[in-house]
Amino acid sequence: MTYQLLKGMRVVEGAAFIAGPSCGLYLAQMGAEVIRFDNIGGGPDFRRWPLASNGASLYWEGLNKGKKSVAIDMSSPQGRELAVALASAPGDDGGLFVTNFPVKGFLSYAALSARRKDLICLRVMGWADGTTAVDYTVNAAMGLPLMTGPADDPRPVNHVLPAWDLLTGAYAAFTLLAADRSRRLNGQGQEIRLPLSDVAASTLSHLGQVAEVLEAGADRPRMGNDLFGAFGRDFATRDGRIIVVAITPRQWLDLVSLLGLDDAIKAIEGELGVSFAADEGLRFTHRTRLFPLFEEAFARMDMSALQSLFDTRGVCWSPYRSLREALAEQEGAFRGNPIFEELRQPSGLSYPAAGPAATIPGLQRDHLAPAPRLGENTDEVLSALLGLGDGEIARLHDLGVVAGPVCGEN
Questions:
Q1: pLDDT class of 407 with cuts at 50, 70, 90
Q2: Mind listing the pLDDT tens digit for each residue in 334-361?
Q3: φ and ψ at 310, to 5 degrees?
Q4: Residue of 135, 165, 254, 379 marked catalytic
Q5: Is residue 217 a part of any domain in this protein?
Q6: Calculated CA dihedral for residues 398, 402, 407, 409, nearest 10 degrees
Q7: Same domain, yes or no: 171 and 304
């Protein structure tokens, strides 16, 4: 279930963890040929959790669907030479390289551009000065774990979603396409350095949070599950827990009406001289007055009654579910969703795998391809891309410079 919008584009990927590989994944699912090279035996993310019962990395399978895999001994001079040759391989459809290797070293832009002047290299980094960082350390440095969690508990709360990695991967794909468009106009290559830290810092700036702290001279306080600046929070029903959000005037008025709280809300508005429908921020400012009314109303209701009541009027809400419960839903984000396709992966497992999140009406989705086995495409790529003959490829195998797929590996 991929599209062919980027058919004819060739991207070489030498990257581990999430940001770089997710960039390659997004490009592959839009039709680009993505060739990934790893060390023989796998890179640092080849066995990363979650794992299947047989030890195969479900994480690695998920991020590398539809790519080709070349296995190289990059500790050897011959292996490093092959990596450089792949990244800088000729052809109008190529010259695009995604990596998180260091700025300096055998995959430096100077070394690569010496081989191909119009090369575009997208380099994912931790910090802009080259200091090592991952999503979770960048998040801590930006202050977000101190904004998250109960108001009466000062301990930081780490987020389970690697947001900066994922945003960086998507931004990397966008930036690579922008650079490719520029190259088509002027013929020039370039290096793009994309640190996780700059993605995080710029995002907080875009959302107004940098200006907020500078203007206030203080950090935003922790407030548990309260939605900042509007009405939203978790509430307990008789048989579960839900989240309700009311941002627009229509969402607010429908919620109040359906719960029979019109008179109680009008009384508070009259006392305070405000209109909660007119200003979402007032619902946040006076949430300690509003929340008890909603807590009492929800505590009297069952989830099924709420669903039939809310869904008819488009109230913005959801029950809290575990991922296992979400997967069991007959229709929803997973089951019956056309972006998913049953796929047999190198681990030997068959399970629903996601294609492109975007749906393009009028364009046919092609079938998904599984992740490759490590080194599955070594010979094919060395022959087609670098023009090596069978004898030279066999010699590289004999020397241990390259490897094909190993039985039992991903």
A1: low
A2: 988 999 999 999 999 999 999 999 999 9
A3: -75, -40
A4: 165
A5: no
A6: 150
A7: no
Residue 53 lies in a domain: yes
Would 2 be classed as within a structural domain?
Answer: no
* 266 and 389, same domain (yes or no): no
C-alpha to C-alpha distance for 32 and 105, rounded to whole angstroms: 27
Domain that residue 289 falls in: 241-319
CA distance 385 to 91: 9
Asked if residue 409 is part of any domain, the answer here is no
Residues 305 and 173 in one domain: no
User: Out of 186-195, 249-258, 332-341, 390-399, which region has the weakest mean confidence (pLDDT)?
Assistant: 332-341
User: Any catalytic annotation for residue 279?
Assistant: no
Conformational region of residue 226, where left means phi above 0, alpha means psi within -120 to 50, and beta covers everything else: beta
- Residue 241 CA to residue 293 CA, distance in Å, equals 16
Q: Which residues of 220-257 are buried (b: 16+ CB within 10 A; e: fewer)?
A: eebbeebbeebbbbebebeeeebebbbeeeebbbbbbe
What global pTM score does this model have? 0.94
> Which pair of tokens denotes residue 286?
């006076």
Q: Which residue has the tokens 């700025």?
A: 103
